[in-house]
Amino acid sequence: MATALAQADDVVAVEYAARIEHVSKSFAGPAGRQLVLDDITLDVAPGEFVTLLGASGCGKSTLLNLVAGLDEPSAGTISTHGRPALMFQEHALFPWLTAGKNIELALRLRGVPKNERRGRAEELLELVRLKGSYGKRVHELSGGMRQRVAMARALAQDSQLLLMDEPFAALDAITRDLLHDELTRIWEETGLSVLFVTHNVREAVRLAQRVVLLSSRPGRVAREWRVDIPQPRRIEDAPVAELSLEITDVLRGEIRRHGQH
């Protein structure tokens, strides 16, 4: 039986940032209903950084949308402590607004008083290393800068859970590497919980404390890895490369087992 997204009681001690219990999701298709996610159970602890990894079409983004409350599971329950903030692959900034005004919009929707919004927006821009960019229009920003503004806007929602759907996939390798550093720094400074979707194995290992591999459709939790490599990490570090190779071998086996190319 489908259940709505539940919000955890703030009075109770927080044991998780997100709790996914026996969640399945199916969609109607030409051949009837198609099962996309099957019996997913997963917790994200307060302050934990978890990456969701899997082949294209395995249901990673679908699961993230369910956690965000943009859709409801066909079965199972999802609980979060407070409302999550969501960051997409595309920056989704409003081009007619400045960088600062894009952030202020999120603050306004959160109920922050008008006289406090600019100062808070400038603080968030400084946090993402864009001090002095309040008045810049979207077309004046590079791809990496736009994603930094999008990150600041997500942080403006004052959520303890940040959901990220392949936010760096469209960026060049150097910019992506720099934003990995920035995200790690912000995560460590703020104590946020992060659930990060990617199909890039090395990105998953570079960032996460825990990597969760979903099988090909229907998506199921195939395997998990604790990443005990100290931060700061680099994509090219030997321990990152070694664990990435291990995970890649398992991922290849999942893809072959499900007949995908």
UniProtKB/TrEMBL annotation:
Signal peptide: none
GO molecular function list: ATP binding
Classification via InterPro entries: AAA+_ATPase, ABC_transporter-like_ATP-bd, ABC_transporter-like_CS, ABC_transporter_ATP-bind, P-loop_NTPase
Keyword Transferase set for record: no
UniProt keyword Cell division, yes or no: no
PROSITE patterns: ABC_TRANSPORTER_1 (PS00211), ABC_TRANSPORTER_2 (PS50893)
Protein name: ABC transporter ATP-binding protein
Keywords: ATP-binding, Nucleotide-binding, Transport
Highest rank taxon of the organism: Bacteria
Family matches, as CDD domains: ABC_NrtD_SsuB_transporters
Segments forming domain ABC transporter: 18-243
